[in-house]
Design goal:
By secondary structure, the protein is an alpha/beta fold. The chain contains 8 helices and 13 strands. The chain starts with a strand and ends with a strand.
Length: about 250
């Protein structure tokens, strides 16, 4: 009987991989992994590696193909690991894969990973919540399944308060920010963008809701970008160890 795991590899730093996921990675017969899982983690695998990554619109496999592969391997004997970047339950399309496994009567276990927003907060030394200014965090996708800007209720987002954590928003943040400002958020609201969070080539860009899109356009980041918007991102506390790029 096979054993199937849907696991998160974390944001990229191999030392942020959980012990449980590392143990399964070393014992799995096959590992279906995303492109964002770094080689320093994949080198721990002992079984067959299958790259099913989707990144920046370049898909080696469609989601339906990934689900079919996962089911096919799961119907064989052995340990099957579906390894995703970050946390599998946070914009990781785990729901589609769970539905495919459920439809074939295949049991599975979820192994959580550290999501990018948590890793960014730790790296930046900026809490996502701060009692005086931010009592909530809102995790939002910045990229629609078919590409472009998702059809969010931007007015509701502006009224929710707290910190906005925008995943996969590097290419769409110009439109995203314009909608938020039009809906009522202050153009001078602090905004940070983090490329390749937790990795050696991490880059941080600091600005405002109005200025950050231009900074990102000039920087042309190629790695995954997380954007944090809100008063909790202001300089209420010092941030050490980073040379921030500032725009007025």
């Amino acid at each position: 009987m096979s054993r199937v795991y849907l696991a998160g590899a974390g944001p990229g730093d191999p030392e942020l991989l959980t012990l449980k996921t590392l143990r399964v990675l070393r014992s799995a017969d096959v590992v279906l992994h995303d492109s964002l899982v770094p080689p320093e983690i994949l080198v721990e695998a002992r079984g067959e590696l299958v790259d099913v990554g989707k990144r920046c619109g370049r898909h080696s496999k469609t989601q339906d193909q990934i689900c079919a592969l996962l089911v096919r391997y799961a119907q064989q004997d052995g340990i099957v690991l579906r390894l995703k970047g970050g946390d599998p339950m946070m914009f990781g399309r785990a729901a589609e894969e769970m539905l495919a496994l459920d439809a074939h009567g295949i049991s599975y276990e979820i192994l959580p990973g550290i999501t990018a927003a948590s890793a960014a907060a730790a790296s930046l030394k900026r809490s996502l919540t701060f009692r005086q200014v931010s009592r909530s965090v809102h995790f939002i996708t910045g990229h629609a399944a078919e590409g472009g800007l998702p059809p969010h209720d931007f007015r509701a987002l502006t009224q929710a308060g707290g910190t906005l954590a925008i995943y996969m928003g590097g290419q769409t943040f110009g439109g995203f920010a314009a909608h938020l400002i039009e809906a009522g958020l202050a153009p001078k609201l602090p905004a940070l963008a983090i490329e390749n969070v937790s990795r050696p080539d991490e880059r941080v860009f600091a600005g405002t809701l109005a200025s950050l899109p231009l900074l990102l356009a000039r920087a042309e980041p190629e790695g995954p970008v997380l954007i944090l918007v809100g008063e909790a991102m202001s300089d209420y506390a010092p941030v050490s160890g980073f040379a921030f790029a500032q725009v007025s």
